[in-house]
Amino acid sequence: MRQLLLSFIIGATFIGCGIASSTQGGVVGADRSQLMLVSAEQMEQGANQNYGKVLSQANAQGILNKNHTQTRKVRAIARRLISQVGVFRKDALNWDWQVNVIDKDVLNAWCMPGGKIAFYSGIINKLNLNDAEIASVMGHEIAHALKEHSRERASQAQVKQVGFMLAGQLLGVSNSNLQLANLVSKYALELPFGRSHESEADNMGIELMARAGYDPRAAVNVWKKMQKVSSGAPMEFMSTHPSHKSRIENLTKMSQKVYPLYSQSRR
Length: 267
Ligand SMILES: [Zn+2]
Fold this sequence. Notes:
mainly alpha; two-stranded antiparallel sheet; binds zinc ion
């Protein structure tokens, strides 16, 4: 059994999968190892398809980047954050990042695998977010993509579905692509992230914003604001576990940890 496992891991590594950390640690220590059975390319393919669909739907409804001032602002903030992603992974500096604002009254924002960002006007308007607060939400979403949380969850689902041994066999066949596109949609868009992924995204996001020159204490503010309005909103980070209280505590601690990075960025 051990030999089988070993050959499976070697095989998986060969095609870009296996057990490794998708990112370097940074100051916040984001170098946790992850089991990856689904390839990054497959996740990205699925993400591109899904992103294209969301954008063309929004465009057809006349709600894509409708508010030019807001879109410009969100894109400028994204540029500053993206310029810092190299601290966690150098390759992400060369991703084909895209940032679009959808004019819809929902508390939502996300970043799909490979750097495809959607920001909904509702979260900015309802929470009356300033630039640093927008950077905090976006940093969190970018972190999910950098750490490849969707890919990790799709991989975990494969293990559950077919078992470890069968997963190895499945990896060899190319007709699993279609299935994977569906997995991407499910794990990048529909299901909320789990508690540990949320905390990890909080930690990486706050480091990104601090390095980009945004006061990390704004992250704490965002969650205090969320706490006030969190009733039945379909937002990925509201539906999951870290309670607002523990989240605010953790972010307060983390904001102190990364504060020196913020000070340095302003020199
Ligand atoms: Zn999240």
